[in-house]
Amino acid sequence: MAEEITKYSIEEKTVEYLKTVFDPEIPVNVWDLGMIYKIDVTENGEDADKPFNIDVDMTFTAPNCPAADFILEDIQQKLEGIHGVKAVNVNVVFEPEWTKDMMSEEAKLDLGFM
């Protein structure tokens, strides 16, 4: 039996997939680094097989991040691969500015900040 596609299941998968996206210069995923500010899953109402769109607001640890294009492409490809998702829009924002305080406790431990 196929798993029902719901807004909640898409949100869960989005977080799960974001935890597989890494900044190649930092051995921690973008979710635990605190680079994801907002996930908004909306129904698009036009496609029964892919009824949801995902909008993500994210930032980088530095405005001139050399891996920005790589990270954005990785996020785009992974989230577009979620069953039930028609479109993904990743918005890069720099407000509020990213700080180490935004990292998860696990990320802080992994990077030696605790």
Helix-strand layout with pairing:
Elements: H1 7-18, E1 36-43, E2 52-58, H2 68-80, E3 85-92, H3 105-110
Parallel strand pairs: 2-3
Antiparallel strand pairs: 1-2
Give an account of the 3D structure.
27% of the residues lie in helices and 20% in strands. It has a 3-stranded mixed β-sheet with strand order 1-2-3, covered by helices on one side. It has a single domain (7-110), classed as GMP Synthetase, Chain A, domain 3, CATH 3.30.300. It starts with 6 loop residues before the first helix and ends with a helix. Helix 2 links the parallel strand 2 and strand 3. The longest helix is centred in the middle third of the chain and has 13 residues, at 68-80. The chain contains 3 helices and 3 strands. By secondary structure, the protein is α+β, with helices and mostly antiparallel strands. The chain has helices at 7-18, 68-80, 105-110, and strands spanning 36-43, 52-58, 85-92.
